[in-house]
Design goal:
The chain is 58% helix and 5% strand. It has 505 residues and is mostly helical. The strands form 4 sheets. It has a 3-stranded mixed sheet. Strands 2-3 form a two-stranded antiparallel sheet. The chain is globular. The relative contact order is 0.16. The model is unreliable at 1-47 and 399-464 (pLDDT under 50).
């Protein structure tokens, strides 16, 4: 469904104060526009930059200002490009293909690799994907650079990725790192083991190139990123993949050692990565992505260490799914195998959803009282935009985990829009805002609407303020680490005990 939304805002109190008395804005860029008006009602385009200069350290503000000046200049070029090249079929192609570059797309398929015994591929995918997402979110919150200005650019978006900062592009990093990661296995199959033909090899390479180019170019076409965002994203994607390729054997040997140094090192390192993630000026959801993927890495590292330390790997994870051992299968054998495979996927995904819901509810019930008790003894770490447990009694039921959606989250994830934002500075919006009125376009075509039509077609919007709680941080760590533990060890061992096996053959 194609919808449009406008961005009328209500201005809450602008500044809050940290312990060192530095004013910290608690508003997003739409609201910062109101700070740009002087006593005569005139607007100064760079007065919002003064606020970032005040809040950010000088070196972060300097880098941000230089990148922002480039983004401002390029926005005009991108708007002219869109007017010239946009077509309805290109809109649909680049918009919907962008879902193939999201971390959600890869995380949905991640458990299946472990359900069917491809644990080494699964670990590699997680290390590359999670490292890229964390590194990109780190840089985004470090420099707080907005996306291309809208207007003049028309944004076409799916989901909530537009709520984040723009530099660098997460889609570009994910697509390039994943394409190179898969290429490594395709090349090994062709050069080393000779299990695929030349035609399959070159066709696979062409598909990977098409995939990466489509995602990167699509971010420019849809107005979601500037060229500097995409170029930096491509660079980080190559860097992450290259680092993993160099360190892969070292990492696997370290995990394979089964020594206690593995958990004693990985747990504090992952918690420190969460704690020292930069605090942005605006309430940007990048931090939630960072928590989710760092926690998934933690869960996978702990699982790999435990299966080696306890011997689970040899006893259970090498079991083979029932079926004929030869190369010729009857129709009944094929049907039986696929039925069992579907049962494994269904049971596994349901178990992960149940864990997610139960663990979140339990932690939301128990963590706030524990935090309040600890706060009476010593000062707890506090992150901007997250309310400490001493300031609330109960967490609302709707407080949710966002980076990896469950069925409950799907309507928000699949929302599609093509919008020109009202404010030049409306680059990061506060989470939880919903449009109250929208217009459905025939056949999902937004290419014939200009900026003013898109801007005015939706009418006023209502904004619901979403509060973040300190217990949410540790809740996400436990929940997503638990999801990884279930997918990597808990469910495959269960399948082996049930006689369903793990490896396909």
């Amino acid at each position: 469904m194609w919808t449009q939304s406008s961005n009328s805002t209500i201005l809450p109190p602008v500044n809050s104060f940290t312990d060192n008395k530095i004013p910290i804005p608690t508003t997003h860029h739409d609201q910062l526009e109101l700070l740009q008006q002087d006593k005569q009602g005139c607007s100064h385009p760079h007065s919002g930059q003064d606020l970032y200069d005040t809040v950010l350290p000088w070196w972060r503000a300097t880098v941000r200002a230089r990148i922002l000046s480039y983004v401002e200049r390029e926005s005009q070029t991108m708007a002219r490009m869109q007017e010239y090249v946009r077509r309805p079929w290109l809109d649909a192609y680049f918009l919907y293909s962008s879902t193939l570059g999201t971390q959600t797309f890869f995380m949905i398929g991640l458990p299946l690799l472990f359900f069917f015994g491809y644990d080494e591929v699964g670990r590699g995918l997680v290390f590359v994907l999670a490292s890229g997402v964390y590194l990109v979110s780190f840089v985004k919150d470090l420099f707080c650079v907005p996306r291309p200005l809208s207007p003049p650019v028309t944004r076409m978006k799916i989901g909530t990725h537009h709520l984040e900062y723009g530099f660098p592009s997460t889609h570009s990093t994910n697509s390039v790192s994943m394409a190179l990661f898969i290429f490594g296995y395709v090349r090994d199959a062709y050069v080393q083991s000779a299990t695929i033909s030349s035609s399959v090899y070159y066709a696979s390479c062409a598909i990977l190139v098409l995939y990466a180019v489509t995602i990167v170019v699509g971010r420019l076409y849809t107005g979601m990123h500037s060229s500097i965002d995409c170029a930096s994203g491509v660079f980080l994607g190559v860097f992450v993949w290259g680092s993993y390729a160099v360190l892969k054997e070292t990492i696997e040997n370290w995990l394979q050692s089964g020594q206690w140094i593995v958990p004693l090192t990985s747990i504090p390192v992952c918690l420190l990565l969460v704690h020292y993630h930069p605090q942005p000026v605006d309430d940007c959801p990048c931090f939630e992505d960072a928590i989710a993927f760092v926690s998934v890495i933690l869960g996978i590292v702990l699982c790999r260490w435990h299966v080696v330390y306890s011997g689970v790997d040899e006893r259970f994870l090498t079991s083979v799914m029932p079926g004929p051992q030869g190369t010729i299968w009857s129709w009944e054998d094929t049907t039986s195998w696929w039925a069992l495979a579907c049962a494994k996927v269904t049971v596994g995904i349901l178990a992960i959803f149940v864990w997610r819901l139960l663990a979140k509810s339990l932690l939301h019930l128990t963590l706030p009282p524990i935090f309040r008790l600890l706060a009476s003894c010593f000062e707890l770490p506090h992150r901007r935009f997250y309310t400490p447990a001493t300031d609330y009694q109960h967490m609302p039921v709707e407080s949710s985990l966002r980076p990896i959606p469950s069925v409950i989250d799907l309507p928000g994830v699949l929302a599609v829009s093509g919008v020109r934002e009202k404010s030049v500075t409306s680059e990061v919006k506060r989470r939880g805002t919903k449009s109250n009125n929208g217009t459905l376009l025939p056949n999902g075509d937004i290419s014939n609407l200009n900026g003013s039509e898109l801007e005015s077609s939706a009418g006023p919007s209502q904004h619901k303020e979403v509060r973040h709680y300190d217990a949410d941080v540790l809740t996400k760590v436990v929940v997503y680490a638990g999801i990884a533990i279930l997918a990597v060890e808990g469910l495959p061992v269960t399948f082996a005990l049930l006689g369903w096996g793990v490896k396909p053959r």
